[in-house]
Amino acid sequence: MAKDPICGMYVDETTATIKSVVDGRTYYFCATACKEQFDAPEIALRKNKIATAVSWMLGIPILVISYFGFPDSHYVIFALATVVQFYPGMRFYRGFVDGIKSRSTNMDTLIAIGTSTAFAYSAFLVLAYSGARGMGVYFDTSALIIALIRTGGLMEDLTKERAASATLRLMELQPSTARLLKSGTETTVPVEEIETGDIVIVRPGEKVPVDGIVRDGRSEVDQSLVTGETVPVPVAPGDAVIGGSINTTGSFSEEATTVGQDSALSRIIELVTEAKEGRASIQKLADRVSSYFVPIVVSAALASGFLWYFVGRVGLTFSVLAFVSVIVVACPCSLGIATPAALMVGAGKGSENGILIKGGEALEVSTKVDTVILDKTGTITYGSPSVSAIHSTGNISAERLAVIFASVEHKSEHPIARAATSYAKELHIPLLEVVSFESIPGIGVSGKIDGVQYWAGRPEMYRQMTGEELDSHIAAPVHDSELKGYTVIVLGRGNEALGFVELKDAIKPGARQAVQMLRGLELEVIMLTGDNERAAALVASEAGIDIYRAGLRPEGKQKFISELQGQGHVVAMVGDGVNDAPSLALADLGIAIGSGTDVAKSSGNMILMKNDLSDVATAIMLGRKTLSKIKQNLFWAFAYNTVLIPIAAGVLVPLFGIGMYDYLPVLSALAMAFSSTTVVTNSLLLNRFNPGRLKADALERKGTKRIAAT
Questions:
Q1: What gap in Å lies between CA 515 and CA 524, rounded to an integer?
Q2: What is the pLDDT of residue 279?
């Protein structure tokens, strides 16, 4: 069974006749009006405004004349009510017919039956009896019900429009044109014509047209509306840029890597749009109720009317009004939109903070998670080594040793070489010319500087260069560094060891604080890694993680997660979305952390666009807040029907008398319209979600241990 993306009603795909196909995906609708609003929301909104205005422009005079009329005024209100019934009210008849064609029922069924009953009964009195006014005509009831329900629908549409503002802002980020550089000539073309591999020029103040890699030039790029990163990101040749971000300072050229529907921005928009149609398992109860709701309500309304007529003996007029009241008050609009309204706002708020949520199940699971597993490499750490310290034996200064290290490693493509080059750039170290460069795979590199042979490599390279073991004066500190978890590179000149470099995969800024936040949310934090025990212990210590497992292959990580799940734990796995895909899929909640185009292909239930580990806490807190709103919405929707249907059926008549049915149908319409607006407005309160304040609160709390550290 599918759900109407507009009103949230249950739709059976096997019998549904009203549908739209967008980007290969089929959407089903309970009524033509919902399809029209989906296909052309601006036009549908304008028509809704006009119809609502007409219903009030005629409805108010009908109400006034009904109570303060003049001779034969019943013919005037009959004429006015006919216009309301079949112009603003026509959408309900169309929906009623659509339901019959689909062999199903929808909310329009109830409204059409209720208003038609009141209108037809009153019309019969006018046409059959010249003294109809004295007998009680209820055109004001049918007209005001239509006016109130149209108003409620309009308010709901306007509120949804506001709720979808995050998606609209993302869509507005998409540039319409790009500066294509081909054969040395720059031309402006529609962005749809850009293909993978094309070179595009981006000038200051312009939007980056497509995902790509910077090939020439430097600048700073504002990615705030795409990733939530508030500070502009510096970019240089080799760096990735995201389409839709804004180039702030310099000009650069980029090579397009991902275009069209596969781009990061398009994927974000798709996920945010899909999120509002997602269903948490809590919604299944509402779905089951909605699928049987209309027939039950019609039966209850008929029972109420017949009981009052045959048992209560209140006459035909009040029996009809009892029937109308039950029909109108029970319209299940609020029940249908309770979940999608909250999901829409929650997904939009998530996108503003660089968090993408794949549907309602992820949100619901996030509230049950008690254990968070963090991958080490690329999640807690940067995923590449960096220079931690340089130690000299005393025969050469540490500064000179740094110059030699960077110069010798410069020509290599090894990750350690990249660490050396980055270190040199950071300290503005001038590189020296190296000749006779040689790389020994798995061991190290060597080359001549000013005619002198220098080398850099693992401790065993000393043996390879000299045929001897390291002297104890350098072997001891090297061994101590290795025990601490550092990767050690020994530097030498000919047969002499000059010192060594400590490298480590540094943890990301704020990683330790992020772990503390997760503990403040009463979550156990565990680190899993395929790295060695010493490296794992060092990172775990720096990140403040007590429990970790080292030397695990992908299948080992899966086994560990399965064991935790077997013990009753609900596990969230945080990884880079590529190497950890099996674990992300197995975990109850997979959270992929990354940035740029890589994240668009991630397999997580939640995707964090930034490389900020604290966003894991933000994602879980947002999930909790969103599901809380869903529960509140469903509570009010069920409570509304539970309380008001018996009232509409007449349980208060012994207290207030049968005369309450003079105004109860109109109050029922007002309550029904108000309930839908309340649900959407309550969902909009999610816009007050403040991750900064919530993170600060989490840091102040102390978590409770659930798993023994080993």
A1: 9
A2: 47
Helix, strand and coil in the chain, % to nearest 5: 55, 20, 30
Would you list the DSSP string of 236-297? Answer: -TT-EE-TT-EE-SS-EEEEEEE-GGGSHHHHHHHHHHHHTT---TTHHHHHHHHHHHHHHH
Q: Note whether residue 283 is domain-resident.
A: no
* Token pair in block for residue 295: 């027939």
Backbone torsions φ then ψ of 30, nearest 5 degrees: -85, -20
Per the CB < 8 A criterion, the answer to whether 363 and 626 are in contact is: yes
Angle between helical axes of 316-329 and 614-649 (0-180°, round to 10): 170
What is the secondary structure of 149-176 as a DSSP string?
Answer: HHHHHHHHHHHHHHHTHHHHHHHHHS-S
Please say if the pLDDT value at position 84 is more than 90: yes
Task: Round to whole Å and give the CA distance between 167 and 345.
Answer: 10
Q: What are phi and psi of 513, to 5 degrees?
A: -65, -35
Question: Tokens for 666?
Answer: 């109109």
pLDDT at 706 over 70: no
Question: Catalytic residue among 98, 198, 370, 375, which?
Answer: 375
b/e string for 334-357 if b means 16 or more Cβ within 10 A? Answer: bbbbbbbbbbbbbbbbbbbbbbbb
Q: Say whether pLDDT at 599 is over 50.
A: no
Q: How far apart are the first and last CA of the chain?
A: 47
Rounded to whole angstroms, the Cα distance separating 98 from 645 reads 26
Mean pLDDT of the chain: 79
Tens-place pLDDT, residues 368-405: 899 999 988 778 888 778 888 999 887 888 888 999 99
**Domain co-membership, 47 together with 146:** yes
Cα–Cα distance, 489 to 450 (Å, whole number): 22
Decide: residue 477, CB within 10 A, 0-12 exposed, 13-18 middle, 19+ buried. middle
Query: Nearest Cα to 153, choosing from 37, 57, 19?
Result: 37
The amino acid present at 394, given as its one-letter code, is G
- pLDDT at position 600 over 60: no
Distance CA 704, CA 267 (A): 37
Query: Is the Cβ–Cβ distance between 98 and 17 less than 8 Å?
Result: yes
Q: Which residue has the higher pLDDT, 447 or 360?
A: 447
Distance CA 55, CA 86 (A): 10
CATH number (domain holding residue 565)? 3.40.50.1000
Q: Name the β-bridge partners of 19.
A: 28
Give the chain's length. Answer: 710
305, part of any domain: yes
The boundaries of the domain holding residue 25 are 2-166+291-335+628-688
Question: Domain total for the chain?
Answer: 4
532 with 580, same domain? yes
Task: Indicate if 205 and 239 belong to the same structural domain.
Answer: yes
pTM of the predicted model as reported, rounded to 2 decimal places: 0.62
Angstrom distances, CA of residue 166 to CA of 246, 353, 427, 612, 636: 17, 11, 42, 21, 26
Contact between 473 and 496 (Cβ < 8 Å): no
* pLDDT (0 to 100) of residue 270: 60
How do strand 355-357 and strand 606-608 relate by DSSP bridges? antiparallel
Q: Tell which residue, 639, 645, 632, 642, has the closest CA to residue 679.
A: 632
- Is there a contact between 36 and 17 (Cβ–Cβ < 8 Å)? no
User: The domain spanning residue 445 has which CATH number?
Assistant: 3.40.1110.10
Question: Do 173 and 207 contact (CB within 8 A), yes or no?
Answer: yes
Q: Is position 706 within any domain? A: no
Q: Measured between alpha carbons, how far is 181 from 178 in angstroms, rounded to an integer?
A: 10
375 in active site: yes
